[in-house]
Specification:
5-stranded mixed sheet, mainly beta, single chain, globular, about 5% helix
């Protein structure tokens, strides 16, 4: 029997008694799109493009083949007409690039809150190569090795004392970078992972807490699948998903000063929420994370990106109560309990936290296929706004399959600046 998005969502809300969002509605107040710019991203850029938090720039990796080998550049591009990318070789190379897996929850780089710097660590658990935490100052066009352990290269050859850093996340004031770290022990084993804070100027590291479940039997590093600072800089939201079942898996809140950790939501609750969207789907990946600007809610992705097509969905979690609910999208006549024809790809909070921007693949048959790009009339990906209080959904329009259709990452900055699917949009609010 086919179940609509409304029935799936309403049933789950009734079980919880309190939902973060209700089912998809219609005609939510929406901001019209006043300008559309397809960013000048080359065809050989990495599939995943990283938007700056303010919606004014993007970063991506570019592989350039020269004399029989490839060099992997990191590029920053302003989201403005006629802009040319600034591409630079990092001081430490990676034979497979810094993001060989663009669907991974391990994010290889992150933007500083002011959009002036990039923190780069690559995906060491994918490449099995270690680089140090590198910081690029865009205005100065200068790299710094922030956490130099004296080694970069294959993890299999790493000597004792080498530190592997993943999931860099800048503090709201730009003064610190949170990350997961683990140290290579004698004999090549890895110590239990920890959450650390690194001073963004000196690189000095302070361990604040062990990664939940890192000391359990069979635990391996790389379990932090999402890391995000609360807007006031007081707490870290951490999603944890080990490769093998671990009782600590789920969502955690960690005090950035004391390291005190609180389990916000166990994995079982997130698994139950996922199955309201995809019946019977095992939760293989959890993360990334994004706080609402008022600090009351978390947006977290969950599902299995390894499926074809990827079966992932964004969920909103109330920080105070732990109530969780799927972000609603319109139903489609071809939907089944196990399959969704309108699938979310990217999401971002509005600057006031009242709405969510969604990029979704698929079109309900009763929706007008109006392209936002005057130069390309194809309509494959919808740009939508969901009201965070009512769940009402509003369609802004459609975009073609662009150069950077990848999972999770979009931005909605001040002045209506939006980056999604390799496009810079301006929403004329009010």
């Amino acid at each position: 029997m086919k179940l609509s998005a409304f029935r799936l969502f309403a049933a789950f809300c009734g079980a919880l008694l309190l939902a973060a969002l209700p089912a998809a509605g219609q005609d939510a107040p929406a901001a019209p799109v006043s300008s559309v710019l397809r960013l000048n991203i080359p065809n050989d850029a990495s599939p995943r493009v990283f938007p700056a938090p303010d919606g004014r720039a993007v970063a991506y990796e570019r592989a350039v083949r020269l004399n029989g080998h490839r060099d992997f550049y990191v590029c920053a591009l302003s989201a403005s007409a006629g802009a040319e990318a600034l591409c630079t070789l990092p001081p430490q190379a990676s034979a497979r690039g810094f993001e060989p897996d663009p669907s991974s929850v391990w994010l290889p780089l992150s933007w500083s809150p002011d959009g002036g710097r990039l923190a780069l660590v690559g995906q060491p658990w994918v490449t099995q190569e270690d680089i140090d935490l590198l910081v690029f100052d865009i205005a100065a066009q200068a790299w710094r090795v922030l956490a130099d352990d004296g080694y970069d290269g294959p993890l299999a050859d790493a000597p004792a004392g080498v530190t592997v850093t993943t999931q860099p996340a800048w503090s709201p004031d730009g003064g610190s970078i949170a990350a997961e770290q683990t140290v290579v022990q004698p004999g090549g084993a890895f110590a239990p992972s920890a959450l650390v804070l690194l001073d963004a100027a000196s690189g000095a590291a302070r361990e604040i807490a062990p990664v939940p479940g890192a000391d359990a039997a069979g635990a391996v590093p790389g379990a932090v699948s999402g890391l995000a600072w609360s807007p006031d800089g007081a707490r870290l939201a951490v999603s944890v998903r080990h490769r093998q079942p671990n009782p600590a898996d789920g969502l955690w809140l960690v005090d950035a000063a004391t390291g005190a950790a609180e389990n916000l939501l166990p994995l079982a609750a997130l698994q139950e929420a996922l199955n309201t969207v995809y019946a019977g789907l095992a939760l293989a990946r959890l993360g990334p994370l994004a706080w609402s600007p008022d600090g009351t809610r978390l947006l977290v992705w969950a599902g299995d990106p390894g499926k074809t097509p990827a079966q992932v969905w964004p969920f909103v979690v109330a920080v105070e109560s732990g109530a969780v609910a799927a972000v609603p999208l319109p139903a489609h006549p071809n939907d089944t309990p196990e399959r969704r024809s309108v699938r979310p790809l990217q999401a971002a909070w509005s600057p006031d936290g009242a709405r969510l921007l969604l990029l979704a693949f698929g079109r309900p048959p009763d929706e007008p296929a109006v392209s936002l790009d005057p130069a390309d009339s194809s309509a494959r990906l919808s740009v939508r706004v969901v009201d965070a209080a009512s769940g009402a959904d509003s369609l802004l329009g459609y975009l073609p399959l662009g150069p950077s259709v990848a999972l999770y990452l979009a931005a909605w900055g001040a002045d209506g600046r939006v980056i999604t699917n390799g496009y810079a949009l301006t929403l004329a609010e009010g």
